């Protein structure tokens, strides 16, 4: 464990908690893409099946349980409890255009042709594009609540910190996982446009509104 | 190869 991975995990945890609290306290999921949250729940489910097969550390196991629990709770709040506030018209990204290619790629390019490894690979590829429905929804509505931008910033920062963690681990441990690195680079690049808007607008106290 | 490198990351 290194400082970059630790802060990456904490940033990811913060993002998940911020979103869950935002929906719970405001009793509304306006501006939130339910499709992205479903994709994240799939990402955690397919990636953390090893909870059933191997124990790495208390930290590892507890974080995985928290991620899975919070992501399903968030999906539940969006599609069940606060369904009336779900903006389905703007959450119109065709996720099948993500899941099918990612599923195919996971079967073709992986480290080991075993079920757990293919599911893990699928999860890594899916996570790199899982935020697209959310970014697409913001581009359609033309704006985002400030709390949502903080959620997105933490979500994007987490994988950016993981990129530094992988540089650190390659240099000090000779460890690297090309699949995770390439997907992580793609994932972080997808946030660049948002990062620019976040730094130039939200951090200056303005509301994030895209040029219509 | 991924065989020996455990998946210790989240």
From TrEMBL, chain A:
The keyword Membrane applies. One of its GO terms (biological process) is protein transport. Keywords: Cytoplasmic vesicle, Endoplasmic reticulum, ER-Golgi transport, Membrane, Protein transport, Receptor, Transmembrane, Transmembrane helix, Transport. It is found in: Cytoplasmic vesicle, COPI-coated vesicle membrane; Endoplasmic reticulum membrane; Golgi apparatus membrane. Pfam families: ER_lumen_recept. InterPro entries: ER_ret_rcpt. One of its GO terms (molecular function) is ER retention sequence binding. One of its GO terms (cellular component) is Golgi membrane. The keyword Oxidoreductase does not apply. It is a multi-pass membrane protein. The chain crosses the membrane at residues 65-82, 94-113, 119-138, 150-168, 174-199. PROSITE patterns: ER_LUMEN_RECEPTOR_1, ER_LUMEN_RECEPTOR_2. It comes from the Eukaryota. PANTHER family: ER LUMEN PROTEIN RETAINING RECEPTOR. Belongs to the ERD2 family. This is ER lumen protein-retaining receptor. The gene is LOC114440483.
